[in-house]
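DATA SHEET
Item: assembly model
Revision: 1
Owner: S.N.
Input lines:
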Amino acid sequence: MPLPPGLANLQHIVVLMMENRSFDHMLGSLGVVNPNIDGVSTGLSNPDTNGTLVPPQPNAQYQSQLQPDPDHHFPAVDLQIFGGNTSAGRQANMQGFVKSFFNQQRDVGQSHMIMYYFAQNQLPVLTTLALEFAVFNRWFASIPGPTVCNRAFAHYGTSFGRVDMNPLEILAPFKSVYERLIGANPPHTAKIYYYDTTSSTLEVVNLLQNQPELFATYEQFLQDCASGNLPEYSFVEPNYNDHQADGGEQIASDQHPDHNIQAGELFIASIYNAIKQNPDLWASTALLVTYDEHGGIYDHVVPPSCTPDQFTASANDTGTGMPFAFDRLGVRVPAILVSPWIPKGTVVNRVFDHASIPGTATKFFLGDYSQRSPREINADVFIEPRVDPVDADRNLLSLATMRTDCPDFET
Amino acid sequence: MTVIKVPHPPKGSLNPDRPASSLLLAQVAHLHEAEKNLPLRYRSERYIKAVRTEGEAANYIREVTEAIHSAHEEAKRRRFAIRRKAVIAADTARPRRKRSGTRRSAKKRNRVRGRRKG
């Protein structure tokens, strides 16, 4: 049976990972537009330190609101998910976000802001992509903790037992997805595009210092899209800091608090436009836009349990007095898959986390590959492998003909 | 086809004096670890504990990232130079092929090559 044309044509997977915003915070407004999207609804709330129930409200601002940066390290996220319950057999209830934010400034009014979300018209790029293509109702951070570990899952399929922000110790036999692809026979092509050398990469410890040839800049990404030289697998990093460069002011575009959200919208649009403006590339590329973790910001969906990783973080390492077996996912984050072969308004309810990223790329380009973490091996894939027969219920690139009605962003 | 306008951040959004976030400080720490593996001449000699602002973090990040790339470029050039030396040495050591007959005069060589005077 012939492969669906969307899969048959697919040659490039691009992943853009932004920073520190939860699903409800960014896409929660869309539940009223598309009832299949599990966004903000009436009845949701978090208690503040006075016992007042605080509902989510569409009062999020682009900048200067979430200060200080909401705590998203392991102990704080534990409080956010379990509401302060540390007893054995406890149940997650997503009731600790306001209390967690209160701990940072001891200001009751300010603590309520952690429940704020963006109205649809404030995020024209992200909400349009979510409504036009495939939005994932159940994409979670890989661990209930901070950036470094979650990004590690996106590169290696594991964080090697780490739940903090310290440099990772990369342990054999788990290679990064880039090393697997480039080292295959025949070799595949892969790159990490960071914004520029001033923003650099968050994958420093192993990849930048050992294989700097894996890296290129955002300018190079634009050129590669225009010239048709994009590698088969690309990971794009936004600008992580405000700085001056030859091109003038470079405003951070990662959307990490307290960076400007609109700068991030422009960046996402530029990645989308770069792919779309090359018709051959547009027809043969799938773009995943996601966020590394929720940044301490409210979401209402309880993270599910998952296959344990083969590592365990000690009670000392977690800072909670309890060990962690990597058997529970982190808080939900926005995740959108873009392709002209995806039907408009697709909503995916299967469970994913960032281990799905190397898992998908590996299975799609290499097929069977055993030397991966248990978490990655058991993670779902967002693009079906090109193996006949393709499961029609799972294949998101399902259209028989390519769409011609996809939006354009004017930046 | 719908065209959606994307607003730009307002002027004044850039703030390199913003206190560096825990993420940026972690990135600085990671680069500091990587920097320890660089030859001395590539090291920044910056005291990372004194990094306080986003701008200071950005300067350090650029310096070390570029140093890592430069160090690898230098190693690549050295590798190429070593290989080139080895090729030249092997070529020099190879016995030369003997020419048949006597050495031709320049006049005869040019005639053979079809060059004419005038």
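QC remark: The mean pLDDT of chain B is 86.
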